[in-house]
Amino acid sequence: MTKAAALQRLQSLGSGTADSRALRAAALAEIGRVVPFDAYVWPLTDPETSVGVAPLASVPPALMPELPRLIRLKYQSRVNHWTGLTAAARLDEPAASLLWRELLRDHEVTDIASVAFRDRYGCWAFLDLWRIGGTYTPGELAFLDAATAPLTEQLRRCVAACFSTAGSTVARDPGPVMLLLDPGLRVIGQTPQTHDYLHRLLPGTTPDPVPAAAYNVAAQLLATEAGATTDPPLARMHLAGGRWLTMRAARLGPTADSDTQIAVTVEDSPVPDRTAVFARACGLAARETELLHHVTTGADTRTVAARMFLSENTVQDHLKSIFNKTGTRSRRALLSRAAGTG
Fold first, then answer.
1. 3-class DSSP assignment, residue 260
2. Which CATH number is associated with domain 177-271?
3. Strand partners, 111
4. pTM of the complete model
5. Distance between CA atoms of residues 91 and 52, nearest Å
6. What's the pLDDT tens digit per position in 186-214?
7. Which CATH class is domain 3-161?
8. Is 134 in a helix, a strand, or coil?
9. Does domain 284-338 have CATH number 2.60.40.290?
10. Assign residue 50 a region: left if phi > 0, alpha if psi is -120 to 50, beta otherwise?
């Protein structure tokens, strides 16, 4: 298959599904025809904080027990960190990468092609393609660059589609619940209600389910402490039925030493958290996003106009634009999608 044909197929993938996992799986099949790889890691990311959620991955079986360590090293590796990528990149100097030097080298990985899926609304995902034997060529990186823009738009639309169903069939807990991790990202404890809560959120998974985002948000905390990023350790994660969770990580002690535990809290996303992701996913402009936040507080048109120093007619024009971009026709429908109310 020619590169042009593969790009054409990649550009049309988004019309066939609103499911991000199906989209990524189909995209990997097309990419692999032009850019061969032996393993991959492709998580979505919180568009504002760039923390990974909803990973899709295939790694060597020997690495499975080391996934928390792999995540920790990925976040702390400054070489080709996805928050700084402006184009597809490979490991020009593998030994400079903490991830390769301390882990992947021992598993015979010889190169990694890294791509960040980012637009003016945020970072939506990153992709690492591992190669065992050989390195990636400039032509292969150029192909990945050409595929990035259409896939970014499609991934953002998939996130927007996650808000299409308001409410949830799962009863909400008053909580947050909390997981305790050691600095190696191993779970060492949890609050009494956490086990049951996570089983209801993630039915049919492992005996002790832990959302992948919990490891990622803790890794983000370690990365900020190491100076690898300045983004906060926070991630919003979508579940079925329009439900969103917010995860945060913090040290339990005053210092970030090797023995200080990490607390990861998990709670239903409050309205501002949901709304922030919704606005970015739907491609709202800054003023439209500001207006949406006012609407979610219950403010009427006159109140919004006064708060934003706009005329009421201008507020209505902005609302029409928001309705158009979000596929809604009324404030009630808009609130149902953005805030989970209505």
1. coil
2. 3.30.450.20
3. 131
4. 0.92
5. 21
6. 888 887 777 677 766 666 556 666 778 89
7. alpha beta
8. coil
9. no
10. left
